[in-house]
C-alpha cells in the first residue's frame, strides 16, 4: 500500500503538524490585535487538548503551563514555537534547530533562490 492510503503514524502526523504550526506562525500578523491574540491563544490551547497523540499533547500542555505562548506578534510566536519544537527535538534525541533561521525555513526560503517557487504560493 502507498503511504497515502494509510492513516498517518506519529512521525507523519508530527511532520505535517509542525509544518502547519510553523507556517501559521510565519504568517501571523506582525502586531496582532486583541481579537487575534485571543483566537490564537484559544487555538493553541485547544490544540494541546485534541492533538491525537496523547503523550505529545500532555507534554505540550506542560510546556505551555510553564512557558505560555506569546501571541502579540509573528516574531515572538515563531520563536516560541521554534523553542517548543526544540524541546521535543531534545526529548527525542534529535538535533536542535537554529531559531534564527525560522523565517528562512518556513516563509522566505534560502537566499540562493532554491525555493523561489514557494513565493508563488498564495497563503
Ligand atoms: P520534525 O521534528 O517533524 O520537523 C519537521 C521539520 O521542521 C524538520 O525537517 C526541520 O526542517 C524543521 N524543524 C525542526 N526543528 C525545528 C524547530 N525547532 N523550529 C522550526 N523548524 C524546525 N513525537 C514523539 O515521539 N514523542 C512526543 O512526545 C512528540 N511530541 C510532539 C508534540 C507536538 C506538538 C508535535 C507537533 C509533534 C510531536 N512529536 C512527538 C512528533 C515529533 O516532533 C516529530 O514530528 C516526528 O518525530 C518526525 O520528526 P522529523 O525528524 O521528521 O522532523
Can you give me a brief rundown of this structure?
The chain is an all-alpha fold and 123 residues long.
Descriptive notes:
The chain has 123 residues and is mainly α. The protein has a single domain (20-107), classed as Four Helix Bundle (Hemerythrin (Met), subunit A) (Up-down Bundle). It has five helices and no strands. It has helices at 10-26, 34-50, 54-66, 74-91, 102-108. Helix 1 (10-26) packs across helix 5 (102-108) and helix 2 (34-50) crosses helix 3 (54-66). The chain starts with 9 loop residues before the first helix and ends in a 15-residue tail after the last helix. The relative contact order is 0.13. The model has no long low-confidence stretch (mean pLDDT 93). The protein binds flavin-adenine dinucleotide (FAD). The site of flavin-adenine dinucleotide (FAD) has 22 residues, from helix 1, helix 3, helix 4 and helix 5.
Query: What hetero molecules are bound to the protein chains?
Result: flavin-adenine dinucleotide
Cα radius of gyration in angstroms: 15 Å
- The secondary-structure class comes to mainly alpha
Low-pLDDT regions: none
Mean pLDDT, rounded to whole units? Answer: 93
H/E series, N to C? HHHHH
Question: Which CATH top level class fits?
Answer: Mainly Alpha
What is the terminal-to-terminal distance?
32 Å
Count of distinct structural domains:
1
Number of helices: 5
CATH architecture: Up-down Bundle
Helix content: 55-70%
Number of E strands: 0
Amino acid at each position: 500500500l502507498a503511504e497515502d492510503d494509510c492513516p498517518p503514524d506519529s512521525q507523519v502526523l508530527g511532520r505535517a503538524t509542525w509544518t502547519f504550526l510553523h507556517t501559521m506562525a510565519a504568517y501571523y500578523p506582525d502586531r496582532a490585535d486583541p481579537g487575534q491574540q485571543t483566537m490564537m491563544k484559544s487555538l493553541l490551547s485547544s490544540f494541546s487538548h485534541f492533538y491525537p497523540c496523547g503523550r505529545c499533547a500532555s507534554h505540550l500542555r506542560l510546556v505551555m503551563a510553564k512557558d505560555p505562548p506569546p501571541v502579540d506578534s509573528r516574531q515572538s510566536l515563531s520563536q516560541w514555537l521554534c523553542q517548543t519544537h526544540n524541546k521535543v527535538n531534545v526529548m527525542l534525541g534529535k538535533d536542535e534547530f537554529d531559531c534564527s533561521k525560522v523565517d528562512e525555513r518556513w516563509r522566505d526560503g534560502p537566499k540562493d533562490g532554491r525555493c523561489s517557487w514557494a513565493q508563488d504560493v498564495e497563503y
